[in-house]
Design brief:
Layout: H1 4-10, H2 16-23, H3 37-49, E1 56-62, E2 78-85, H4 88-98, H5 108-118, H6 124-134, E3 135-140, E4 158-164, H7 174-185, E5 188-200, E6 204-207, E7 210-213, H8 219-224, E8 230-239, E9 253-261
Parallel strand pairs: 1-2, 1-4, 2-3, 4-5
Antiparallel strand pairs: 5-9, 6-7, 8-9
Bound molecules: S-adenosylmethionine (SAM).
S-adenosylmethionine (SAM) is lined by residues 8, 11, 63-65, 67, 70, 85-87, 90, 141-144, 164-166, 169-170.
Length: 265
């Protein structure tokens, strides 16, 4: 049985470039295919953000990895956006994109897709520029600590959290997953919102040489984790069609949760 320590060691060989190639280019990010999974994720996030209920001063993306697609709608609703990741290689990858350095991943197609969903006729380059300006910091995170951002943010609590494919990908079992959710909940103001995307029934994924084990979650387990402290505002699931399966993970689907932290328990 795996442990938090063994998982952390395993992550040391995580390869951001390989991870991006496995998940954020076609077929998984094919904007001409209505069945493609990245467009599905972007639509879920955009719909929640269009509700008019989410917004405020600070948005924290818990465990950005080397990706920014997960904040493309939400960042517009906050004055400041903080990106985070456990690994220095991922924080460097994010900074490469933020500074528009050579070799940075091209998020243009995803940004263009979000502009189409939002329907304001805005050129995607304008959104890209705004996001780069809105991100104030890229900092370390460890969701297994009671203060996942250490002293970087304490004692401030924030208006919203985004997190995608994090908790199930770094927890050894379901109780640890639920505990990690509790830890990040501590960062959120009462009444604050969390937008969470996660894998369904995934036991492992690859990122170059790294083979990372994941807690295999059903829809029911995913929902149940929010029983303590949250009201679920929207829950959606996506079953990966044959055309979206790749040989670098065994995920069967993806979940989307929009949850609001209760004012008091
Ligand atoms: N958010 C990205 C996405 O949507 O594709 C990347 C998710 S990637 C599957 C999982 C991430 O978990 C990696 O970026 C890794 O650095 C991070 N991670 C590993 N251990 C962690 C920990 N203890 N606390 C927070 N994040 C951790």
């Amino acid at each position: 049985m795996s442990t938090i320590k063994a998982i952390a060691e395993n992550y040391q060989t995580f390869n951001p470039a390989a991870y991006l190639q496995n998940n954020y280019v076609p077929p998984r990010a094919d904007f001409s295919n209505p069945d493609s999974v990245v467009p599905w994720k972007l639509k879920c996030l955009a719909d929640a953000c269009a509700s008019g209920e989410i917004g405020g001063q600070i948005l924290v993306d818990i465990d950005s990895g080397p990706t920014v697609y997960q904040v493309l709608s939400a960042f517009e609703l906050f004055k400041e956006v903080i990106l985070t990741d456990f690994l220095a290689v991922n924080r460097e990858e994010l900074k490469k994109w933020l500074h528009d350095e050579p070799g940075a991943f091209d998020w243009g197609p995803s940004i263009n897709q979000v502009c189409s969903i939002e329907g304001k006729g805005e050129p995607w380059q304008a959104k890209q520029k705004r996001l780069r300006e809105r991100v104030s910091r890229v900092i370390p995170v460890n969701v297994h600590q009671s203060c996942p951002l250490g002293t970087e943010l304490a004692p401030v609590t924030v208006d919203a959290l985004v997190s995608s494919f994090c908790l199930e990908a770094c927890s050894p079992n379901y109780p640890a997953f639920v505990k990690a959710l509790g830890n990040i909940t501590g960062l959120l103001k009462p009444g604050g919102h969390v937008l969470m995307i996660g894998a369904l029934e995934e036991s492992y994924y690859m990122a170059g040489e790294a083979r990372l084990s994941a807690v295999s979650l059903t829809e029911e387990m995913t929902r149940k984790a929010y029983d303590v402290g949250y009201i679920i505002r929207d829950f959606r699931s996506y079953t990966l069609p044959e055309s979206m399966t790749v040989d670098t993970d065994d995920a069967k689907g993806v979940s989307f949760v929009w949850a609001q932290k209760k004012e008091s328990d």
